[in-house]
């Protein structure tokens, strides 16, 4: 069936949110850890993290409109730091629970049953229960005019992960590390590798790696 | 183990690219269809599409540096239109093959064995073999200064998808539609739903939907 923009604008609000959130495809499943200047920790689930570049190593995140309180954004602007922690099957319920609207004084770590962990380099908490943890420093942000959202970019300063998930060519087997994926607002999925494919060249047959 | 930014900068180039591309988590798997002013069709695999907003309905895409030819970007700027087509297991090899560097006169549709399909609204080709197809119009773009990439945003004008994958609350069951996900540069994965979770509120137990 075909659904037009006019149909979409007439959808009931939650129906439209569910529908449109599903359309970009599967999404990354991360917990973003931050702290205020005073050291209050915050943890929030994000499905918008994307790869921005490898040299320098960069990750981008989309933030919802400034009109609602955004503790994660405020903390990043205060301290300059955030952590990206992959969500796995053991913690997906705790991760989802971080999307509840807790007061800023409360830490989602405590409220949702996850454990903060610190390194010397990053002024933000990691999630102990996560298997792949990335420490980032704020580098730039862009204001998306059409809907008042912000695309924010962080430089990767350190990565903490199990030795046995990094393959010989640098690929990180995030499936083996238990990382899961999200679709829509609230659907969590495990993955099963189909295959890795060789570098594509015109007229050359692809191989399975 | 801990890997620092200094370690990352000393990695061999392809090793670093594989490593950093894996870190954001699972990625969306889409084919972006465009056409030049003259009507030459182009098709390119993108793993950077993300949800930007539901009202108006928006999708964002990250483009690599301007220094390399980017037919997709050029076509979008020429015509103002692009299509987003979910990749499924039946076409993932053809989809991967679109990443080969074909001359601009050649169409990846023909070279890779996929079929262009047109609608009245969108001046860009859809992929017939894709189950979920989204027609978009360019709305704004942002230049990421630190690595000369571009974050581009399109407004969703129409969505073409099977009736039976849209649930009562608007959620689109993209897993049922066969949509797959990508990790790193070249790894393709099927998904298996763990569960959908209810809207989170402080102090309230989560339910499985």
From TrEMBL, chains A, B:
Pfam families: Flavin_Reduct (PF01613)
Annotated keywords: Flavoprotein, FMN
Keyword hit for Flavoprotein: yes
Highest taxon, organism lineage: Bacteria
SUPFAM superfamilies registered for this protein in UniProt: FMN-binding split barrel
Keyword Flavoprotein among record annotations: yes
Residues in Flavin reductase like domain copies: 23-173
InterPro entries hit by this protein: Flavin_Rdtase-like_dom (IPR002563), Split_barrel_FMN-bd (IPR012349)
GO molecular function, one term: FMN binding
Classification via PANTHER family: FLAVIN REDUCTASE LIKE DOMAIN-CONTAINING PROTEIN (PTHR33798:SF5), FLAVOPROTEIN OXYGENASE (PTHR33798)
Listed name of the protein: Flavin reductase (DIM6/NTAB) family NADH-FMN oxidoreductase RutF
Organism for this UniProt entry: Thermonema lapsum
């Amino acid at each position: 069936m075909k659904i037009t923009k006019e149909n979409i604008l007439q959808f009931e609000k939650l129906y439209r949110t569910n529908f449109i959130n599903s359309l970009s495809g599967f999404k990354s499943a991360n917990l973003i850890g931050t702290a205020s200047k005073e050291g209050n920790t915050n943890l929030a689930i994000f499905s918008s993290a994307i790869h921005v570049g490898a040299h320098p190593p960069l990750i981008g995140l989309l933030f919802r409109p400034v009109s609602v309180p955004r503790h994660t954004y405020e903390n990043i602007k205060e301290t300059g730091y955030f952590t990206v922690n992959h969500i796995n099957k053991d913690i997906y319920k705790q991760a989802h629970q971080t999307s509840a609207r807790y007061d800023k004084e409360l830490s989602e770590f405590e409220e949702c049953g996850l454990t903060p962990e610190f390194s010397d380099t990053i002024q933000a908490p990691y999630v102990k229960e996560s298997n792949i943890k990335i420490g980032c420093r704020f580098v730039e942000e862009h204001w998306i005019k059409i809907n008042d959202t912000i695309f924010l970019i962080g430089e990767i300063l350190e990565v903490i992960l199990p030795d046995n998930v990094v393959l010989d060519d640098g690929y990180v087997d995030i499936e083996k590390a238990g990382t899961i994926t999200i679709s829509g607002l609230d659907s969590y999925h495990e993955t099963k590798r189909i295959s890795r494919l060789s570098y594509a060249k015109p007229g050359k047959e692809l191989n399975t790696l």
